[in-house]
Amino acid sequence: MKKICLIEDEESLSDLIKMNLELEGYSVDTIVHGTEAFLRAFEMESFDLVILDVMLPEVSGLTICKEIRKYSRVPILFLSAKGTTQDRIAGLKLGANDYLPKPFDLEELLLRVQILVEGIEEVTAVIDKITIGDFSVDFTSYLVHNLHTDEKHDLSKREIDLLKLFNSKQGLVISRDEILDTLWGNDQFPTSRTIDNYILNFRKIFEADPKTPKYFHSIRGVGYKFVKE
Q1: Cα separations in angstroms, 63 against 39, 88, 124, 139, 199
Q2: Is 3-118's fold the same as 123-226's?
Q3: pLDDT by residue (tens digit) across 113-124?
Q4: Exposure string (b/e) for 95-118, b if CB count within 10 Å is 16 or more?
Q5: Cα 167 to Cα 14, 71, 173, 183, 206, distances in angstroms
Q6: What is the pLDDT of residues 134-153, one digit of tens each?
Q7: What are phi and psi of 11, to 5 degrees?
Q8: Four-residue CA torsion sign, 28, 48, 42, 109
Q9: Residue 79: which H helix or E strand, with range?
Q10: Is the predicted pLDDT of residue 215 greater than 80, yes or no?
Q11: How open is the CA angle 93-99-105, to the nearest 5 degrees?
């Protein structure tokens, strides 16, 4: 059974999230005080996911996230009433994997949890095709073809996996570290420049003007954001 640590001081919200996560089959431990979460940061390695409120009493979620990252690469999902782009970037820079502004849809929370806990392959396995602008991407054949012409492109498995990750997090900023952790793990050591090269290739294929991208956006100092429409 997958284990989740929920760090949230609002009791009613904590109880609601915990109940629904348990209904999905997860084991959930809850922490309500920032100080306790900070002191237990070294224990987070034993969990499969940490759901962390940003605005906690005593010690902020941002400080706790930074402390957790001293000991573990456990996925961290931030919850916050502060949902501006700068707030999200601040959380991602500290090592969070995802950021969900309050109020949020419970179904969306559960989907994001599933993606972070189970992995991108398991969650997106049922999706075998997506459309990006004038192009159709077939995840099974690794083929991209223009819907209006005979233009075709072959993609590598890594490129397909990256497109799956982008597709699962449309409109969200994804840090370079998260991409590296998700696609390469700890066994290989590519640089962030490797990801940049993948994005450049995507822009050449999908963007009408690669210099003014419509779908694959760079977020300076953090990573990338994919927008299908």
Answers
A1: 11, 14, 32, 39, 32
A2: no
A3: 988 887 655 555
A4: bbbbbbeeeeeeeebbebbbbbbe
A5: 29, 30, 12, 14, 14
A6: 999 998 899 999 999 989 99
A7: -60, -45
A8: negative
A9: strand 76-80
A10: yes
A11: 175
Q: How far is CA 138 from CA 40, 115, 179, 223, in A?
A: 44, 21, 21, 25
Residue 199 CA to residue 194 CA, distance in Å, equals 9
> Cis link prior to 103 (omega < 30° from 0)?
yes
Q: What is the CATH number of domain 3-118?
A: 3.40.50.2300
- Work out the angle at residue 196's Cα, subtended by the Cα atoms of residues 195 and 198, and round it to the nearest 5 degrees: 65
**Residues 2 and 45: beta-carbon distance below 8 Å:** no
User: How far is the C-alpha of 113 from the C-alpha of 131, rounded, in Å?
Assistant: 25
Spatial separation of the C-alpha atoms in residues 175 and 110, rounded to whole Å: 21
Structure tokens at 152: 């075709």
Rounded to two decimals, what is the model's pTM?
Answer: 0.59
Residues shown for the chain: 229
Is 126 exposed, middle or buried (CB count within 10 Å of its CB: 0-12, 13-18, 19+)? Answer: exposed
Q: Is-contact 1 27, C-beta < 8 A?
A: yes
Mean per-residue pLDDT of the chain: 87
Domain ranges of the chain: 3-118, 123-226
| Cα–Cα distance, 115 to 103 (Å, whole number) | 20
Name beta bridge partners: 219: 223
Question: Residue 128: what residue type?
Answer: D
Q: Which residues pair with residue 76 across a beta bridge? A: 50
The CATH class of 123-226 is: mainly alpha
